[in-house]
Amino acid sequence: MVDPAFFDEAVSIVGPEHVLRDADVVAGYTVDWTGRFSGSSPGVLRPGSTEQVAALVELCRRHGVALALQGGATSLSGGTVPLEGEVVCSLVRLWDLEVDALSGQASAGAGVRIEALQSAAERAGWAYGVDLASRASATVGGTVATNAGGIRVLRHGDTRAQLLGVSAVLGSGETVSHMSGLVKDNTGYHLPSLLCGSEGTLGVLTEARLRLVRRSPERVVALLALRDAHAAIEAASDLRRGLASLSAVELFFAPGLALVRGHTGLPDPFERPHGAYLLVEASADDDPTTELSEAVDALGGVEEVAVALDATRAGELWRYREAHTEAINRRGTPHKLDVAVPMGAIAQFVDRVPGVVRDVAPGAEVWLFGHAADGNVHVNVTGVAPEDDALDAAVFELASGLGGSVSAEHGIGIAKRKWLHLSRSPAELAVFGAIKSALDPDGVLNPSVLLGG
Ligand code: MLT
Ligand code: ZN
Q1: Ligand 1 centroid vs 81 CA: distance in angstroms?
Q2: Closest ligand 1 atom to 321 CA
């Protein structure tokens, strides 16, 4: 039970219009995007500056109140859910955005949407290197907190690779800020790297200094139909090696394609189903169509190819891949198991997953897709109760047994806490605990996430 005086003081910090107490409004902040995880909260706070965040963290420490941090609330591992009745702290009002065209960098508030950052970078002649299907809702703060990956990791790296500096309020109440954007700056521990991927358990990120990348204005998209997952992974590797302009290579399979077609009404891209599909994008200064065609001609195991000749068709081809998330959610509340597997084991993993799931959940439906060049397979399972996690365990153990990780890019959140030990040794977990105690000694930040539970 939170002391009413807590909310009175919160009002004096952020203003009455930014302390939400209406139960119906607050309820909207307590369920994750997939609908699998939910909690409850006595209220939502919406700070508008780093100083206000610092005052709120101090207030939480005094009152023994914990915060559940939220950006665009697009977490796919329950990372924004107030599972234990935490007060929600929404950071969407931190929307300052400034592009420094000279250095090719941006300073972005935690609440800036990725799409807005991408557009601002483009207007200045640059691009932002991270892109993901939830770009219209996902925020800078959330993507830094989870070290989001997405569809361009093979070209530009993950969010951590873009991060030059942060401003953040630690759980201790201290504000740390290192936003000069120096590309070379070897002056000790790299706090941005530590906070990136810490899922809001160490500090509240309020601003990030991000590197921008060169724009590649000419783009071509193709959909390849391949014999099977083995051929698809071989092809993805060959494309990485041989196609300098490669900017995305995404994997999916016939059941997912059929589901997406049913959801979107898109036509079948090919006359018959195939064992695996690769969505391939190349982008460069000059039209990369010839280069892409030559690279595709040299691949083995390709059965059919559809090339987009205009932007509309390119958008359609992308939709076959990106609409997987919404089509699966429409089918039923999914178990979203976002794993990474060494490249040499992906095809084996893909072949074995349906049987492993069927053994523990006979009525389940398995949907597989992912980022072929990153070894990142999204295993989605519908037709199983949200709380029944036997299949989660089976899939994580399979991935881990093949040398993989229980989270490639979605983070641990609350969904995977039970299996963190499959990816991290006792010694590593002890270091995590020591860092958490040092930076958030009272446990006021995201106590249910990552290490909690
Ligand atoms: C994607 O790759 O589309 C995203 O990670 C979302 C998802 O896994 O559903
Ligand atoms: Zn993904």
Answers
A1: 19
A2: 3
Q: Residue 45 forms beta bridges with which residues?
A: 19, 89
> What pLDDT score was predicted for residue 452?
81
Cβ-proximal residues to 188 (8 Å cutoff; 6+ apart), any chain: none
Which architecture does CATH list for 218-324?
2-Layer Sandwich (3.30)
Judged by its nearest atom, the ligand closest to the C-alpha of residue 323 is: 1
**DSSP labels for 71-84?**
SS---SSSTT--TT
**Prediction pTM value:** 0.97
What's the 216 CA to ligand 1 centre distance in angstroms? 24
Look-up of token digits 């800036």: 112
Ranges of CATH 3.30.70.2740 domains, the chain = 332-409
Q: How far is the CA of 149 from the centre of ligand 2 (A)?
A: 7
In DSSP terms, which residues pair with 166 in a beta bridge? 208
Encoded tokens for 180: 């000069």
| Domain 4-90 of CATH type 3.90.550.10 | no
Q: Which fold has domain 332-409?
A: Alpha-Beta Plaits (3.30.70)
Give tens-digit pLDDT for 1-43.
Answer: 899 999 999 999 999 999 999 999 999 999 999 999 999 999 9
Report how far ligand 2's centroid is from the alpha carbon of 18 (Å): 33
Where does 97-214 sit in CATH, by number? 3.30.465.10
Nearest ligand 1 atom to the CA of 133 is: 3
Q: Is the CB of 76 under 6 A from ligand 1?
A: yes
